[in-house]
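Throughout this review, each integer encodes one residue's backbone shape. One record appears below.

===
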Amino acid sequence: MVTRIPNLLSIAGSDPSGGAGIQADLKTFSALGCYGMAAITALTAQNTQGVTGVHVPDASFIAQQIEAIFADVRVGAVKIGMLGSPEIVHAVADALARHKPSHIVLDPVLVATSGHSLGAPGVVEAMREKLFPLASVITPNLPEAARLAEVDMPADEAGLEHLARLLAGQGVRAVLVKGGHLSGATAEDVLFAGGQVSRFSGPRVNTKNTHGTGCTLSSAIAAHLAKGLALAQAVQASKDY
């Protein structure tokens, strides 16, 4: 008997250094036993130190990439990363609203791990309007969550739950706020879904090699959802990974 492995689509930007973006997504999909595909939303010039350039293709071409995939392949889950303009957000949202994949993990890439801004004016508003209602879960890091909620970035773990609740009030089904930007011996993440709060804790790794960690986590969540895990289980398995 042949077992069908899930086909996962990453809609994200390209990182030539291979640590983030679609490169990180495809590696994660493969490592977790899934088949990875990609619709490229931006070409970046970046490495582990930062982003030095971004080239954004026309929104209609991004939509064409997505349509080509859904016309030919059964898609088990979609992970969304960097979206370079409001027009691209609308094009991606329109395509996904038509095809209705079972799972959509939105990683609202607005601030790179290096601190560089990756969100053009109007992208946040477009995400709220078009993608939040479609997403199974959004996975902002702390600076992104604060920007989406339009509040100052909290300095402690208590602020993670507050941010998650604020974002849930913007029309998303589930929010995972990642606490990696805080300090302490452990790295805490908070999931707010179905009115319930779940906390995920792990030992903080003493390393500067954090480039692409957010991309990897969200891709792993998409992979585990496509393989049949419930959301909280998928988050825990992805954090372990």
